[in-house]
Amino acid sequence: MPKIIIDGQTVECRSGIPVLQAALEAGLAVPHYCYHPGLSVVASCRLCLMEMKMRDPKTGQMDWAPKLFPSCQTPVRDGLEVRFCSDPVRDNQQHVMEYYLLNHPLDCPVCDKAGECYLQDYTEASGPATSRMVEDKTKNPKKDIGPHTLLYQDRCVLCSRCVRFCDEITGSGELAVVGRGSRCEIDVLPGQPLQNPLQGNVVDLCPVGALLDKDFLFKQRVWLLRSARSVSPADSRGQTIWIDYNEAGIHRIRPRYNEKVNEWWITDEARFGWKHVHRRDRLRQPRIRQGTALQPARWEELPALLRTWFSQPSPTVPNPIAAILSPMLTCEEAWLLAKFARSLAPQATLVLGHVPTVGQDQTYPKGFTIKAEKCPNRRGVETILQHLGGPTASFQEFLGQAVEGRFRAAYVTGGYPNAWVMDPIATALAKIPFLVVHDLFPSALDAVAAVQIPGSAWAEREGTFMNCDGLLQPFERALPPLEGVKADGQFFSELLGQPGLFRARTVRETMAAELPQFSEVFIPRDLPKHAH
Amino acid sequence: MTDPTIKRIETLLRKPGVIFGAGAAILLLVTALLALAFPLYKPLLSAQFPFSMIVLAVMLALILSATAVCILAERKIAGFTQDRYGPNRVGFWGLLQPLADGLKFLLKEDIIPRHVDKPLFLLAPALALAASLLGFAIIPWAGQVRWPWMPPDAPPLSTQVANLNVGFLYLLAVGSLSVYGVVLAGYASNNKYAFYGGMRAAAQIISYELPLGLGLLVVLLVSGTLQLDQIVQQQAATGVWNIFLHPVAFFLVLVSALAEANRAPFDLPEAEQELVGGYHTEYSAMKFAMFFLGEYVHMITSSALMVALFFGGWHVWGLPGLENVTWWAMLVKLVAYLTKVALFIALFMLVRWTLPRFRFDQLMRVAWQSLVPIGVALLAATAVLTYLGWQHNVWASLAANLLLLVVLLRSAARSKRPVTARQDDLPEVDVRPTA
Amino acid sequence: MRDDDIIVLKEPELTAAERLYLPQILDGLKTTLRHMFDLQRRRAVVHQYPEQKREDTGELRTANYHGVHRLNKDPDGRVACVACFMCSTACPAHCIHIEAGESPWPDREKYPVKFDIDELRCIYCGMCEEACPVDAIELTPLYELVSCTREELILDKEKLLQVYEETKAVKPRKNPPVTDYGLTGRQSLDVAQPNVERKV
Ligand code: SF4
Ligand code: SF4
Ligand code: SF4
Ligand code: FES
């Protein structure tokens, strides 16, 4: 652990990192554009320059060197002494900022980056308040560089983060710097739009409002949003995310730094994987079949009804009750539901629900992986099923048994963002006389369900997901459940007759008493603003 | 947007001729009707009980309409003291404003919030108004009267509704009943602001009951009777109103009367800056108007009481024939009494638009640390005077009052703590950490 | 905060008369009575609205009166607002509701698809006017704001533009637009005055 001295303070830091990184980790707000810890260092923006002590070749004394050094390109070494709070450093920052602002349009009112823009913040902190530029600014039209992304060229500061991302992380290299001098631009090759499964990250990477997401374009100002720490349900890797939302709902999803899983990036699936939360056709009311139709019911009626059905033994079949635990459930919810089924019918069959997969795992050069398994908590549900023991079945086995008419009552949980009830599933489940369907959207099961319970989306719940590597990560609730809908965990704890509000943490603590895997969760630390 | 017909009616009503003409016409009509119907009710006028009932009816009507006028007067006075005109849109000089107000109150949506205690919520305003009205029973409006058609030896009729021999003791009793309405309103509203208002009213009225009682006791010692008509007659006989004997006692009663009527500067129970609307926060429409009426009626009662006790009731110096019991003398007396009451009401209103509200601790301190000791001292002094038989001696009584005032001034000048200041004599709290 | 930043104020000592309270009351009564009978002052101070209006006497300060809002139009007659949400962010009463969208004009980026102001909720503080970077929202001298329903007083974009048409004669748009919404990238010169005096 080398020790360096920044502004007179001794700072202990990891070895092998640049001074800039050490300073940022020590909490200093050093302006920088081109440096990103996940990308190679180019030292092109010249904003992070610092003063450094060197041995004066004439006197042999250690003294401040007359020239400034890019802190992003200077690796730390023990005893190194640098400073940022000195006049030369500040003058440099001010002049470089003025230079950046030469051609920068006065677009902040219409720019989606405003409020989280590095250029705005650095200008406020150290930049000039007025411009001395009297010539015409260069003006570049905005470019449509991909299905999801717009490039406002005249806002670009040419830090080349986006170019390096496409070169190094995805290896697809769509973006390039073209032209020279003041005509330098970021661009794509004709016919090759920015279109890789990680491309959304360039919008987050862009320190200014040059690369913008078409999906979020003009929707909200960022300061009107609140952020919730969440975990993406898009695949089984458990990418940590921020859900940016306000009263009107979710507006966008950003990556949340996580050194163990996704680092600074997320996949586009995770980024745009919230649309189902606001789909119009979400179920909003519990319904009970009366005659041939499902009739609206009150939540209070449900527990008693379910308890009666699930506790009656059948004269013909040995264990006629099944609970299908969807891998979209949180660990806590799966636990409560399993407990509920087993408390009424000790021999109830517990089934891991349908696990959707798409294609193959996809790994990028630097190790970022997109999982084929498109559900967040298969591992968590499996762990719970293993622990509880007793009769369990895979989803396929369960379907087979169901077709034979072995089940009299089953609780099916869904919660998938996409349609999942294919024909074989529907025909098999149709054989179950008392079928409880707990799902987000209408499906083919509506025709056969005895009770239909509206579920809440992941953004409306709290809990933990266990990712494919067994890492347990908690997430917060961003939105309240839809009006008329109960959060899944709340309903399950009411089914169990537990009084009061459902709190994922309390449930997890009781689980941890039996299952040591649940005693520790991993919460990545929050990075300060502009720390990467 | 305005309908031209409405516009025309509006302009018409603004003409003084129209208003006064209509007023005169109505008055004429009523007089004519009364004159025509005279044989019908003549026998009723001759016996005490039916006569009392008639007085009751007339006075009730008069007072309830007087409150309407009071409200207009209040708003006018408020306007004038603030360099405004006050209401001047409805009718000439705003004279029809009370009518408009009443209409508005009647037509407003009457809201009963869901969370209130409904029976009490409905009862409270009625109680507030009724309790204030009860006081009128013993006001000796115009002394006694003997109608021309009655035999000359018949006992004259009293213009009091009820000539109780417990006199103003009754007034004390029912007067403080009105706080019941306020407290109930605060409690039934199930609203913290209303509740604060109710609590404040309770504490305040209990506190000010004392100086009021002490001031009245002084009058009792002087006059030796509780009956208001006799007190008035005594003052009329000597021509020395009680105010000249005991100005300090009058002051005590005046201040307490303001406090009991919840008038500024003692309107803490409905302090809108602190408590939204205080006890009537949840009330609307006619129920709210009833609290309003109650307050004004209370004001009129208190004024009438003070006029009887300290200002010689219907007595005016130099007016001949007041000792007569003829009907025209009665009318003169009535006018004299009502004029005095009106002046008092004007004073109440002026005070309201002059003085800022007390803080609650000041309110309490004024009652318990100033008024009550003064009252007790005055009572003792008057008792001594009465023992010596000097209770009707103007100079002796005035001397006693003056002495009290001097003592008061001296103690005020010497006291280090200002009356109106913050409570700065709380014990110091030691905040040093204990070793 | 340093110790010498604290100023300790002592309550002034009251005189004996003040402590007695009564003389002060009489003093107060004197003041109110004086005003009560001061007909001249009353006549001078009070305006008999609606017969007398301040517009007619020229006493209404049209330049900075805080009345009904308007949305200004740019020289081409389009809504000048760029939907930056500054006004709704600044508004202490939270009465401005904007929905932004991509503008239908090639030379502009963003414009308000919906722009509603709840005039009943507004406290007429003028913060929105201060916040607007393009002087698109302004308070006008219109103060007669009446309607039979609350809904009518939630002014939408069309009504706000209409207010501009009605009031532009008495109150012209305050400043010419300082930006041209990125049309040429040129700022008007008075804004971009070279700062010669700047010490570097
Ligand atoms: S990139 Fe930043 S500075 Fe430039 S217009 Fe957008 S918010 Fe403003
Ligand atoms: S005047 Fe004030 S309260 Fe009204 S809209 Fe503007 S900012 Fe909001
Ligand atoms: S501040 Fe001005 S430009 Fe921005 S949204 Fe409001 S009115 Fe439009
Ligand atoms: S030069 Fe160091 S961050 Fe850009």
List the helices and strands and how they pair.
The complex is a heterotrimer of chains A (532), B (435) and C (200).
Chain A (H helix, E strand, L loop, with lengths): L2 E4 L2 E4 L6 H7 L23 E7 L6 E3 L4 E2 L10 E3 L3 H15 L16 H9 L15 E3 L4 E4 L8 H9 L5 E4 L6 E4 L12 H5 L5 E3 L12 E6 L8 E7 L2 E7 L12 H5 L14 E4 L2 E4 L4 H11 L9 E5 L5 H14 L4 E4 L9 E2 L5 E2 L7 H11 L3 E2 L1 H9 L5 E5 L9 H7 L4 E6 L11 E4 L8 E4 L5 E4 L12 H8 L8 H11 L18
Helix pairs in contact in A: 2-3, 8-9, 8-12, 8-13, 10-11
Chain B lengths: L3 H11 L1 H21 L1 H9 L1 H34 L15 H11 L10 H17 L9 E2 L11 E2 L9 H8 L2 H11 L3 H32 L4 H11 L3 H4 L1 H14 L11 H4 L9 H26 L16 H26 L7 H29 L5 H21 L21
Antiparallel strand pairs in B: 1-2
Helix pairs in contact in B: 4-5, 4-14, 4-15, 5-14, 6-8, 6-14, 8-9, 9-12, 9-16, 12-14, 14-15, 16-17
Chain C lengths: L15 H5 L1 H15 L2 H7 L8 H4 L11 E3 L14 H5 L5 E7 L7 E9 L8 H5 L5 E3 L14 E2 L1 H11 L33
The complex binds iron/sulfur cluster (3 copies) and FE2/S2 (inorganic) cluster.
Task: Give a short summary of the structure.
The complex is a heterotrimer of chains A (532), B (435) and C (200). Chain A is α+β, with helices and mostly antiparallel strands and 532 residues long.
**Mean pLDDT reading of chain B:** 82
How many runs of DSSP E, i.e. beta strands of chain B?
A: 2
| Structural class label of chain B | mainly alpha
Q: What's the tally of helices of chain B?
A: 17
Q: In oligomeric terms, what are we looking at?
A: heterotrimer
Helix content of chain C: 25-40%
Task: Find the biggest chain interface.
Answer: A-C, 27 and 28 residues
> What helical percentage do the residues of chain B reach?
55-70%
What series of H and E elements makes up the topology of chain B? HHHHHHEEHHHHHHHHHHH
Number of domains of chain B: 1
Nearest-angstrom radius of gyration of chain C? 25 Å
Residues in β-strands, percent of chain B: under 5%
Poorly predicted regions of chain C are: 179-200
Straight-line distance between termini of chain C: 32 Å
SS-derived structural category of chain C: alpha+beta
Number of helices of chain C: 7
Rounded average pLDDT of chain C: 81
What is the chain-wise order of helices and strands of chain C? Answer: HHHHEHEEHEEH
Strand order of the largest sheet of chain C: 2-3-5
